[in-house]
Amino acid sequence: MSYNLSREKTITTTEPETDLAKEYGATEKVPHSQARNMSFMDMLATWIGANANNGTWYMGGVVAGCAFGGAIAVTLIANPIAYLIMAMVGYMGYKAGTSTMALTRPSFGVRGSSLPTLVNLTSFIGWTAVNTFIAAISISFLLKDSVGWAAFGEKGSAKSMIVGILIMSILHLASISLGHRSVKLIERIGMILVGILGIWETIVVLQNVSFSQIIHWHPSASLSLPFGTAMDTMAAFSLAWIPAIAEFTRYTKNKSSATVAPMIGANVGLFWFAFVGIIATIAAAITTGTYDPNNSDPSTIASKLGLGWLALVVIVLTSTTANAINLMAAGISLTNLTKKIKAMPALWTVTVFAVLLTFVPLLFGSFLDSFIAFLDYIGMVLGPLIGIMITDFFFIKKRDYDVPAFEEVNGKYWFTGGFHWPAIVSWAFGVAAFLLLHTMEFFKASIGATYPVLILSGLVYWILVKIRK
């Protein structure tokens, strides 16, 4: 199946200089002019930085429960599918010039889009908290080496973790201080740092444990992860970036920057750091004789393998590159709920909420359990949502959205009282289908439930729309 992404006509306008510094709200269309200031390399760096970080490493450690062969297979199957879909939504953002959540208005209705926006808001605040917590673990190890405080996992580590979370929060505020422009700068620097870290840590791991040992290692039966469950976990991880993509592609100059660049960047970053996480976690299991997915975070593994303080510092910095994107998506989503808050105050607001959420794992048990439960939630709600968005834009509206109508009361996207019930019903159907299929042995052992539910939700939406006509 192919789509004719024909060359769009470029509109040349003269734009005030102040527009170059403007951060556009969710439903504001970024014009085809100097405001479109993100190049192919900017997008490549942004999406390498999005995935070449501690969260991806941690994901590699989690799916290592499938053993090396299974973990690599999951990585090579689940992620290219997700990033092909991301490229499609990236094109939607480039074409319409609005944010991802604004793009839900033609399918869910002007008011109905608030439902996926709330989910998206909680999702990206949650991702920020996840990455912040993992980076705070690195800071706790640095504090142990420098001032003797207990590191994460040791008795009395709460103090070092709290300090770590506060340090990361300051870095996050700096990373989004100028909106997408500061994110662009941080991602350029981050791409270089993660490249150095990835190469170095791969070499160190393979110096400690042979590749043959890694390939032939298997977890105990009690810790083994079913292939389909790993597929759902990895798919949720990668699909979670899709609601952020238009926040950046709306600023791109051409279609290849909006589609090809993020697809390549996200895959490269994901493959690389998931691979590092897989082999590092397995190497630590071989070296210590114990595989514990609770301790597959990069800081604990780096400490076990003796990678030193520099690795911990780079892990902290790469967390900042990933969370800059998370916070951009969350903040702009907030402006889709209300126009009373402007883009920059929205970014600061979601950063504060993310700080508060980061403390939750300190209060309620295992971080791994919280992480897996969060990913199940992501897969459950985002898969059906994305299926509906893709179906509406490419198959029902034929790649033609009327952006001024995004805010019109009683306009073409108002539907029934501001809600488009076929989309809402299809979304609810998709969530119910995920809950059912996710627990079935066939899906747990094979393809997982996320992608089948994504397709099924889009199909149900298409049928309901056709019936209403």
From TrEMBL:
It is found in: Membrane. InterPro entries: CodB, Pur-cyt_permease, Pur-cyt_permease_Fcy2/21/22. It holds the Pfam family Transp_cyt_pur. GO terms for molecular function: cytosine transmembrane transporter activity. Keywords: Membrane, Transmembrane, Transmembrane helix, Transport. This is Cytochrome C oxidase subunit III. GO terms for cellular component: plasma membrane.
